[in-house]
Design a protein that fits this description.
Length: 478
């Protein structure tokens, strides 16, 4: 069986998978079949249509669409994950991805037509285009040092507004994180040997670019070590999973969950306009296993999945160093949950955007929602360190309700109920009478989603951490 690194390389570079050369994802269609529909030659994960055993009608369609190869898209899928007990007495379910196949078509073939033909077959549960994630970033350049991290503690060092940040130092007075908390970074890989990440990164080896290392440093770089930068969470472990095509990326999410990640950061978008079922099922599995997915919101013109999967993802947009909506290419998506620092207002004098780690012990600046999202991921880690009993929806709502509203109060003009501010929730919390944050949250009507002009800028959950530290437990009892 191929290692995960080998499968990623095969998908991304188009090298050999088994005896049949693999195509690039843009030439492939993902097909989930019913059980025992396709049989591969013994010991193989890829074959030509003539080499597999399949029902006559499926074989006819494969030949009609000029399929060149069929390969198992998730050869390492564990069938136990189709129905795995969840943490709260529930069952987290997945399709049996042992039956998920990537069908390679000739370069430039009409994949939409092929998908229509495949969907007509009784044996096919769904068919969709294969792809690889699009990272929500701009490339970084080299630099370093904590005083330049205005997103954590804004002293106007970027020319921005004093305190236009996430109030990280205030939060660190209450929680600096815990090595018992694991944050999943599902991305293009993390440099485990980086001085500011060494000894705390587990999971996949290797990296395909700078993006995952940059994201990991923002969320949880080694801190208070007299070098480099500060992570939002000082002590959390990082579980690295490398993305690839649909099968590799779905397996990466599943593996991050099964290896104990309580939060997974996904600073990427899926490039197809069709609903990506394979990726969706992996996200549902994560949430039903008690994990909080943190997702970077798409910029203008970018694909909007996984953003649009549902309310149960924490969707993070970008604000600037003036506590403002930056304007294009950032969007006013109505499904934004919060905003976090992601870009400066350029005033000359060099690159002053978000600072983080890049491979080979270097540092760089970059901008984008890709680098706003891991700040929320780090904040979730701080909360879990303060109270390990918090559930994924506790984390989501504590982050949202303890954030500062930088625009007209509440969740925007579409909201039907009275405004909710950080100060309102804090004032309503009475430790002496046993009121629980969860009870406050669940008593609130679910707000309609607001455009980013009415989104909120997180303050590292200072008030939520205060509540957690004073009470000791705000999560629902098991």
């Amino acid at each position: 069986m191929l290692s995960k690194a080998a499968r990623i390389s095969a998908v991304l570079l188009g090298f050999l998978v088994s005896q049949v050369s693999a195509g690039v994802p843009e030439d492939e269609v993902m097909v989930l079949t019913r059980p025992e529909v396709i049989a591969m030659p013994e010991g193989r994960v890829s074959a030509t249509p003539d080499e597999i055993q399949a029902p006559r009608e499926l074989s006819e369609v494969l030949h009609a669409i000029q399929a060149q190869a069929v390969r198992k898209a998730m050869p390492d899928f564990n069938p136990a994950d189709t129905a795995r007990p969840g943490p709260y007495g529930n069952t987290a379910r997945l399709p049996d991805f042992r039956n998920l196949y990537a069908v390679r078509l000739p370069t430039g073939a009409d994949r939409d037509s092929a998908i229509r033909r495949l969907r007509e077959l009784f044996q096919v549960i769904y068919a969709e285009k294969n792809a690889v994630p699009i990272l929500r970033q701009t490339p970084p350049c080299n630099d370093d040092s904590f005083p330049k991290q205005w997103n954590l503690d804004n002293t106007e060092q970027s020319g921005g507004k004093l305190d236009a940040d996430i109030d990280a130092p205030e939060a660190w007075e209450l929680s600096k994180g815990s090595s018992s908390v694991k944050l999943g970074i599902v991305d293009d890989g993390v440099d485990k040997a980086h001085d500011d990440l060494s000894a705390k990164v587990l999971g996949d080896d290797g990296y395909d670019g700078m993006h995952g290392t940059f994201v990991a440093g923002i969320a949880a770089a080694v801190t208070d070590n007299d070098k480099g930068i500060a992570g939002v969470d000082w002590h959390a472990q990082i579980w690295a999973e490398r993305t690839g095509d649909a099968g590799v990326t779905a397996q990466a999410i599943i593996d991050a969950v099964n290896n104990g990640s309580k939060v997974i950061n996904c600073s990427w978008g899926w490039p197809e306009v069709d609903f990506p079922w394979t990726i969706y099922y992996a996200f549902v599995y994560a949430y039903t296993q008690g994990v909080l997915p943190v997702v970077a919101v798409a910029k203008e013109g970018e694909p909007e999945y996984p953003d649009r999967f549902g309310l149960w993802n924490l969707l993070v947009n970008a604000s600037n160093d003036e506590d403002q909506y930056p304007g294009p290419p950032f969007t006013g998506k109505r499904y934004t949950d919060i905003a976090a620092p992601g870009i400066t207002i350029y005033q000359g004098g060099g690159n002053i955007n978000i600072l983080s780690t890049i491979p080979e012990d270097k540092y760089g600046h970059a901008w984008g929602t890709s680098f706003a999202a891991p700040q929320a991921t780090g904040v979730a880690g701080l909360l879990l360190a303060a109270n390990p009993n918090l559930r994924n929806y506790d984390l989501e709502w504590m982050i949202k309700l303890s954030s500062e509203d930088k625009y007209p109060p509440g969740w925007g003009q579409e909201r039907d109920t009275s405004p909710i501010l950080c100060s309102t929730i804090t004032a309503s919390y009475k430790p002496e009478n046993g009121t629980r944050l969860r009870d406050l949250v669940l008593a609130l009507p679910r707000p309609r989603l607001a455009p980013v002009e009415h989104a909120v800028v997180p303050t590292a959950c200072t008030s939520a951490l205060w509540m957690t530290a004073r009470r000791g437990s705000t999560g629902r009892s098991s």
